Amino acid sequence: MNTKLLVVKMPEKQLSFSPKTHALDNNDNFSPDGRFLCYDTRGTIYNENLANSKSIEKIEISSGIETVLWDPPFVSGEEAAPGVAAASYHPIENKIVFIHGPDLDEVEKRGYYNIRNRTAVEVDGEGNKTFVRIDLRDVFNDTTIHGAHRGGTHRHEYTRKGNRIGFTYDDFLVQDYDRTIGFMQPDEKTPEGYTHYFSIILKPARKDHSKAGEIEKAYGDSWVDAEGSMRAFIGKVRAINGSDYDNDLFIADIPMDIDITTSWSGTQNDYPEAPEGISIRRLTHGMNVTGIARGSADGKLVAFASEDEAAVSQLFIIKSDGSEEEPVQVTYLKDQVSAIRWHPSGEWIFYISNGDVMASYVGTRFNFGETIKLSNDQLERDQLVLSPDGNMLAYIIPIPTQDASGTIVKDAGGKNFRQIFIMELDWERIHK
Predict the structure, then answer these.
(1) Residue 377 carries which DSSP code?
(2) Distance between CA atoms of 151 and 120, rounded to whole angstroms?
(3) Distance CA 4, CA 333 (A)
(4) Is there a contact between 288 and 279 (Cβ–Cβ < 8 Å)?
């Protein structure tokens, strides 16, 4: 079967021009009103490590004006701090969540930035630099403070109602466990000085010690439904032969009335435990799922990328309730699918393939699987995001950039700076 492939080029516009990286990082970068995009500046100085990302910023779509939202004192280099990156807007309020490593006055005690030494913070979206700490990190007590963690949270994502935050997690104290996933929510027992109570969602099997069917690593996660009762993720799971691994799609069911305080924060020698009431469901078997799984606006479907027989990642969808035994393949392309995003209608899925913006139809009014190329020049587009109203796409393209004197300048790796581009969708042409 071949995906019906049409070319309907949409006009695109370069939005940012300043000599710095503008990293969208596959997060929720549009402001709730669709007027701004937030980003980090990784790769602008020294290297690509998030430790050397020194600022969180926003850009106004109508004017291209950039505003620095958070730029704490920093030190760059192989050992750097604090490191601020991976920004996402709150879906309702004018604030942004992002990764924050140790402040400079904490480095002597905590050490420099690394994946096991970072937390979440929020900053206001006006540029007032009003700073709020979200999750407590505690690696010093014999028994970890209840509601705290002992490592690094990463790629923080609000639910579409803003009531929970999901993330990936790497533990500092017990490192014979691989990455897993977690969630936070406000609670009356939240540690003092912080806004959210921390918990893992899944305790993985110890690295290289799993049995057939056990998950050793959880990642590629995203909320499925608006309320945050389902978290889709990719599980690195021991295959039935007991030696190989599959990377399959799973759903964590998290009841809305769960008592997050029944989780256990662990000790110096013991890994944390999830709260009572979470259940894990496996949706695929023996597939090689890649990227980030994404839930449709109504929470009924999950879109994901998985390799076909030719090792090309294609677009698939599956019902989130597990009522389908097999996922439905949407695309049959020659090039990899990545950076998947649902349209709010649930009828279209946008993604990147071979550097171009693509859209595939998964509704019932038109031909299922019909695929449209919205650009057609393979310009290394990446980090696709979609506006709340579903009418604008944003993404990054590495492109020659000039400094104030007109000289072409490069990023820390000697490459073109990644600039933000936007594409307004002409639905009459798409539906024609």
Answers:
(1) S
(2) 11
(3) 10
(4) no
Q: What one-character DSSP code corresponds to residue 104?
A: G
Give the bridge partners for 361, in sequence order.
348
Tokens at 191, concatenated: 């540690």
Residue of 420, 423, 422 whose CA lies nearest to 58: 420
Give the C-alpha distances (Å, rounded to integers) separating 234 from 287, 291, 376, 415.
10, 9, 31, 31
Q: Are 280 and 250 in contact (CB under 8 A)?
A: yes
For the chain, what is the domain count? 1
CATH code of the domain covering residue 70? 2.130.10.10
Give the three-class secondary structure for 277.
coil
- Give CA separation, 388 vs 76, 327, 412, in Å: 35, 27, 33
User: Model confidence over 219-241: pLDDT tens digits?
Assistant: 999 999 999 999 999 999 999 99
Yes or no: say if 294 and 285 are a contact pair by the CB < 8 Å rule.
no
- What is the domain range of residue 126? 5-430
Angstrom distances, CA of residue 35 to CA of 61, 388, 397:
6, 10, 20
Cis ω before 398 (30° cut-off from 0) = no
Question: Residue 92, Cβ neighbours under 10 Å: how many?
Answer: 12
CA 224/CA 326 separation, integer angstroms: 18
Retrieve residue 211's tokens: 């049995």
Using only C-alpha atoms, the chain has a radius of gyration, in whole angstroms, of: 21
What per-residue string of b and e applies to 218-236 under the rule 16 or more CB within 10 Å gives b? bbbbbbbbbebbbbbbbbb
Element (H, E) at 166: strand 165-171
Q: Give the tens place of pLDDT for each residue, 355-413.
A: 999 999 999 988 999 999 999 998 999 999 999 999 999 999 999 999 999 999 999 99
User: Cα(121)–Cα(184) distance, rounded to whole angstroms?
Assistant: 12
**Separation between Cα atoms, residue 37 and residue 392, nearest integer Å:** 12
Q: Which residues of 319-350 are buried (b: 16+ CB within 10 A; e: fewer)?
A: ebeeeeeebeebbbbebbbbbbbbbbebbbbb
> What local confidence, expressed as pLDDT, does residue 325 receive?
81
Give residues with Cβ within 8 angstroms of 9, minimum separation 6: 373, 374, 375, 376
| Phi and psi, residue 50, nearest 5° | -60, -20
Three-class secondary structure of residue 113 per DSSP: coil
Q: Which structure tokens are listed for 196? A: 């959210």
The Cα 318–Cα 213 span in angstroms is 20
